[in-house]
Design a protein that fits this description.
globular; Heme Oxygenase, Chain A; 197 residues; 6 helices; mainly alpha
Length: 197
């Protein structure tokens, strides 16, 4: 699936200032095991094979669509560009029905929404890389839904502001929500045939 959320950022401490991680670096490090597991599961789908690609998109739909419905990106005060509709359109073009979706009953605190948004918005970066493996004649709108220039940096800056304002309990809630979101993707990949280990 390659839910790549960002490139490594070097933090170079000096004697005057101690090393300090931005919150997006903290959340990235904390969710790395979940992230790696999800990448390994979604990496089992052959995106050059039409049926496997449809399975890949179905697994994404089973996770992304409920998260976007629960999250309501606009509620975070950010430019919202949900991908549920383009994902549904790609599945339709492949002749694949939308998978059965279960509404989420997750806690709906602001921190939870930011944690989940970090995962689904970060996955656009991985989608752009995966698009190279999808044949040109396949529907590609979902993986091609990348961030407009500057939007990911703006998202991370807004996340940092909210994390600073919210404090440690807010940050912990956001971390748990990000892990929960990765788990939803993991379970969706397994339901479509990916195997652990």
């Amino acid at each position: 699936m390659s839910l790549t959320t960002e490139t490594d950022v070097a933090v170079i401490p000096n004697e005057a200032t101690p090393e300090r991680l931005d919150f997006h670096q903290t959340i990235r490090r904390s969710t790395r095991p979940c992230h790696d597991e999800v990448d390994a599961l979604f990496g089992q789908f052959d995106l050059a094979d039409r049926s496997a690609y449809a399975d890949f998109l179905s697994a994404h739909a089973a996770a992304l669509i409920p998260v976007e419905e629960w999250l309501q990106l606009a509620s975070l005060g950010l430019p919202a560009s949900p991908r549920s509709n383009v994902l549904r359109a790609d599945l339709l073009a492949l002749g694949r029905p939308q998978p059965a979706l279960n509404p989420l009953t997750w806690p709906n605190r602001e921190a939870d929404r930011w944690g989940a948004a970090y995962v689904i918005e970060g996955s656009r970066l991985g989608g752009a890389m995966l698009l190279r493996n999808v044949p040109q004649d396949y529907p590609r709108a979902y993986l091609g839904s990348v961030h407009p220039s500057g939007n990911w940096r703006a998202f991370l800056a807004a996340l940092q502001t909210r994390a600073n304002e919210g404090g440690s309990s807010w940050q912990e809630d956001a971390l748990v929500a990000a892990q929960r979101t990765f788990t939803l993707y993991r379970d969706s990949a397994i339901a479509m045939g990916a195997t652990l280990g």
